[in-house]
Amino acid sequence: MQFIQILGQGPIKNKLKNIVQKNRLPHSLLFLGKEGSGALPLAIAFSQYLLCEKVNGKSSNKTDNSLFDNKETEDVPAYIEDSCGTCASCIKISQLIHPDVHFSYPALKRDSKHDRVLSTDYITEWRQFIKLSPYNNVADWLRFLKENAKIESPVNKQGNITVFECDDISHKLSLKAFESSYKILVMWMPEFLGNSGNKLLKLIEEPPPDTLFIFVAEDESAILPTILSRTQLIKIPSLSKTDIENGLVAQYQLLPEKASRIAVMSEGNYRESLRLLQNSEEDLQEKVREWLNVILKNNAAVQIKWIEEISQIGREKQKQFLKYFIHLIEQAIRVEYFKNENPDCIPENERDFAIRLNKMCALEAREAITNELSIAMYHIERNTHAKMLFHALTIRLLHIIKDNSLVLVV
Fold it and tell me: DSSP letter string over 278-316?
């Protein structure tokens, strides 16, 4: 994986390349970025950049190419923008099979009989998962693992990085590098490490020569403080709307208008933009129309039927549905602000819906609905009971809009 294949993050890429070019590489880095920011693909691309034969100077016949001595030297090769992607090292890393790049990540027990769980037990599934999308989150990974590794009933459903994994890491990094000048461990989601991570403290503080730790995390507060204090922090910002829009256009040949709308709703999270892409906006809008009609008709039997249907579609789609509803409310506010104008940022079908929504409820009511939808998304993320949530939410929205509703959304 090359830097050029990763969306946005230009300043971070330049920072990482400068660290290498100036021989300022620490022994442990923490890539901290929210879901969908690209922290994991950046870590893989950085590993490839480090071990690329063109970048590390093998092509120049350098005899001493350590990057850990904190001493700038004149024999560092000219500034190189990216790994070559064609040398043996680059090809192996792109396929996640390089013997000197090790991965550690949360894993599940296959059954209650085997306590020893290692990341390497699932390396085949890991390669498939990263190839599918390196922007996915840990919930996606554990679900993928359960479906593809023949784990019928996982003992630890939340996943774990075990003490056995820490012992295995210590063993692997104690060995000499097989093919490259450096050994690299990429640990994804050290938040799952637990107290067993204390076994790695000595290794992180005094690693073997030319060994690099790259921790990739989303929640700094969930990482062991003892590990946190031994790493150099690199914050990965959320992606910009433009970065996501360009990625969707380039990878999925979307029309710029549709890519722009999805980019706005994804709020800097490329994973979320891919989930939104899976559901057509027309279907989402139709679901919102249906719900509002169900709310305003206030028929108990119809409401129960709709709630039963929405509770069956899964948490991710429920969140997308609510997020799209919030997007439509934002569009309604824009329409009201621009009055009779028709700005390019509002598609015609959404403009028509927004006009009807503005007639249905006042600005204060729209703000209250947005707040209720946001709270509901929060509870969905925490596995609340879907039927109870949407039943309560339907009643709340009815009370919010019933006093000033004028027309049904038909």
Answer: HS-HHHHHHHHHHHHHHHHHT-HHHHHHHHHHHTTS-HH
The strand order across the sheet containing 101-104 reads 101-104, 183-188, 211-217, 28-33, 232-236
User: pTM for this structure?
Assistant: 0.76
Residue listed under structure tokens 């892409």: 277
User: Within the chain, what is the greatest distance between any pair of CA atoms?
Assistant: 79
pLDDT digits (tens), the chain, 410 positions: 899 999 999 999 999 988 888 888 889 999 999 999 999 999 999 999 999 888 877 544 444 455 665 555 444 445 688 888 899 999 999 999 999 999 999 988 876 666 788 899 899 999 999 998 899 999 889 888 888 877 765 555 678 888 899 999 999 998 888 888 889 999 999 999 888 788 888 889 888 888 999 999 999 988 888 888 899 999 999 999 899 989 888 888 888 877 887 887 788 899 888 887 876 555 777 888 888 888 888 888 888 898 888 888 878 788 888 888 888 888 788 777 766 555 555 666 677 778 787 777 788 888 888 989 999 988 888 888 888 999 999 988 888 877 654 444 44
How far apart are the C-alpha atoms of 107 and 109, rounded to whole Å? 7
Is there a contact between 243 and 10 (Cβ–Cβ < 8 Å)? no
Other CB atoms within 10 A of residue 309 CB: 12
Residue pair 369/323 in contact (Cβ under 8 Å)? The answer is no
Give the whole-angstrom CA distance, residue 122 versus residue 168.
14
Report CA torsion sign: 107, 32, 376, 271.
negative
Structure token digits, residue 402: 């019933």
CB 338 within 8 A of CB 316: no
Q: How far apart are CA 43 and CA 31, in angstroms?
A: 7
How buried is residue 48: exposed, middle or buried, by Cβ count under 10 Å (0-12/13-18/19+)? buried
CA angle 364, 375, 140 (to 5 degrees): 140
Which amino acid is located at 340 in the chain? N
**Strand extents, DSSP E, 116-240:** 183-188, 211-217, 232-236
